Amino acid sequence: MEEIKDCLGHLISSSSHSSLKEKQYRILTSIQPQEAPMADVEALIGSWRMKAWTRTSVATGETTDALGPSPIGFIAYHRCGRMMASVFRRDRFPPKDQAWTMEEKARLFDDMLAYVASYRIEGNRVIHEVDGSWNPSWQGALQRPFTLEGDRLVISGAPGVDPATGENVIYRMEFTKD
Predict the structure, then answer these.
(1) Residue 130 bridge partners (DSSP)
(2) Residue pair 111/87 in contact by the 8 Å Cβ criterion
(3) Could you tell me which of 138, 113, 41 has the C-alpha nearest to residue 82?
(4) What is the pLDDT along the chain (178 residues), one digit of tens a residue?
(5) Residue 166 DSSP label
(6) What is the pTM of this model?
(7) Secondary structure of residue 150 in the 3-state scheme
(8) Which end of the chain has less neighbouring CB within 10 Å, N or C?
(9) Range 158-165, long-range pairs (CB < 8 A, 24+ positions)
(10) 10 Å Cβ neighbour count for 121?
């Protein structure tokens, strides 16, 4: 938890107003997952269907849907130590019989997430060692605090940069076992 708070402090330190920095820190640390005992790897194995994905702006504290309401997505963890994730905005462009324009291609890129990785669990974090991603900036270790209760998986609390806007955000993803 202290590592997350240190990282959040670094993200908001660029603000020149100390009262704003304090407010941002309080907002963002209040949405951090509670420390939990180490999860059983076997309980994580399987396919998980996304139910919700939100992003909270570090600058304003505003929470919005990351890819619109009810995104279509899955994350899967395998016993061999591999994982994959794919998420799409539900209201993407309909199919068409001609080539996509550059603007349409850019929007399609911004309306999705996909990557493959190896993974390991350390305490209440799952660490994804990314092998390949739709976003070339996603490389190396992505540390994700998570909670696992029965058939409900919540990955939340990791600061990041929204690839579509460049804004510093905190993501929260909720899944149910498929």
Answers:
(1) 117, 140
(2) no
(3) 41
(4) 444 444 445 444 444 444 545 545 444 444 444 444 456 789 999 999 999 999 999 999 999 999 999 999 999 999 999 999 999 999 999 999 999 999 999 999 999 999 999 999 999 999 999 999 998 888 899 999 999 999 999 999 878 888 888 999 999 999 999 9
(5) -
(6) 0.76
(7) coil
(8) C
(9) 158/4, 159/4, 159/7, 159/8, 159/11, 159/28, 159/58, 161/137, 162/55, 162/66, 163/110, 163/135, 163/137, 164/110
(10) 16
Tokens of 17: 């107003």
Q: Exposure pattern of 31-69 as b/e (b: 16+ CB <10 Å)?
A: ebbeeeeebeeeebeeebebeebbbbbbeebeeeebbee
Task: Name residues whose C-beta falls within 8 Å of residue 42's C-beta, 6 or more positions apart in sequence.
Answer: none
Residue type, 112: M
Is there a contact between 79 and 102 (Cβ–Cβ < 8 Å)? no
- Amino acid making up residue 167: E
Taking each helix axis from N to C end, the angle separating 18-30 and 2-12, rounded to the nearest 10 degrees, works out to 140
